[in-house]
Amino acid sequence: MAQEIYHILIIEDREDDALLMQKLLLKCSGVDESFQTVQTRSLSEAFQALSQDHFDLVLLDLSLPEAQDFRAFESIRAVAPHMPIVICAGIQHEKVAVDAISKGAQDYLIKGKIDQQNLARVLRYALHRSKFEKMRQEFVGMIVHELRSPLVVSMDSVAQILEGILGEITPDQKLFLTMAHDNMNRLNLLIDDILDMTKMELGAIDLKKSTFDLVELVKQITANFSSQARKKNIELKMQMPEMPVYVYADPEKIQQVLINLISNAVKFIESGYVEASIIDQGAFVECRIKDTGYGISQEDQKRLFDKFKQFGRRNKKGQKGTGLGLAICKGIMDAHQGAIRVESSEGSGACFIFTIPK
Ligand SMILES: Nc1ncnc2c1ncn2[C@@H]1O[C@H](COP(=O)(O)OP(=O)(O)OP(=O)(O)O)[C@@H](O)[C@H]1O
Ligand SMILES: [Mg+2]
Question: What residues line ligand 1, using a CB cutoff of 6 Å?
């Protein structure tokens, strides 16, 4: 069997710690596998290395002078969302390291307690687990994709009966067939969401970038929600710059983010207004979707952009969903090197803010 070579990026500002890690990794290398390392001493050096070379895993020190604690992990996560990360923490940072695992780090090592055996075990486990995770996501993607063909054929058949192509139908039959068609449509949208999510998790999101006016796009999408807003008796407002604001991004994906955010705002509100606004910040543009709805508690905000997370369901009509919308928005923003966040408190509305570089 050919030797497997793993490329490890060590992010560590302390020479003695980095050297120890390199020595141990050299010792861990054998006939079947070897670990080749690159050391970077700061986050900016690490970003550069990640943009230039391929790495299989990052060993990240949690006490870099420029980004203490969780910030270093979050920064690497933002530029390399699919990279397995193993944390190296001092004993005083063990709690932060454990938190990082709940946010997607593969494992952690405690400085001063690292030996060849536990390093090799942690790395092998992290590398194999991320490989299996990738295979699992590809498998889910394939299965979900296969669900679509029979669904589309069924939808088409029902649509033809509804159109009366096979003869007249009674009002009762129409009612039930419409219900079936609506639900098949929902299932189809869910399949789209799961496929999008899987692609993002595999790092395979394919951006088709072009230059377009974000102001125009936001106006269009907001206007599409006017009848829904009217039905709920809420106002749809806009605060747009007079001039166009051009961005170089994937218009379809940005449209998807806007639809998700505005549909949430319209969904989780009883009265008041939803307002879309754009602020040109020079190198980047900021878009805000603000509502006067239920709001989101500080506790729920921590997991807001995770998959399948829904909070304080009130089981009201029209509030059904799967909890994938915001996770998809986050994935799209990451792919654009943008960001998304929320400002909210329970009971007093929410404001979702996304920024993308121009
Ligand atoms: N504007 C908002 N106001 C209050 N709560 C919100 C708002 N946007 C999102 N949420 C909360 O966050 C949860 C996750 O939102 P997300 O868009 O990911 O899922 P969803 O809307 O429930 O379903 P989906 O978007 O997949 O149809 C929602 O279920 C809701 O509890
Ligand atoms: Mg949603």
Answer: 193, 260, 264-265, 268, 291, 293-296, 304, 309-312, 321-327, 350
For ligand 2, the distance from its centroid to the CA atom of residue 320, given in whole angstroms, is 9
pLDDT classification of 94: cutoffs 50, 70, 90: confident
The residue whose CB lies within 8 Å of the most ligand 1 atoms, and thus the one to mutate among 200, 268, 353, is 268
**pTM flag (> 0.85):** no
- Which residue ranges make up each domain of the chain? 4-114, 133-201, 210-357
CATH class of 210-357: alpha beta
**Model confidence over 25-55: pLDDT tens digits?**
998 888 788 899 999 999 999 999 998 999 9
One of 3.10.150.10, 3.40.50.300, 3.40.50.2300, 3.10.180.10 is the CATH number of 4-114, namely 3.40.50.2300
Helices of type H across the chain: 15-28, 43-52, 70-79, 94-102, 116-162, 171-201, 214-224, 226-232, 251-267, 298-301, 325-335
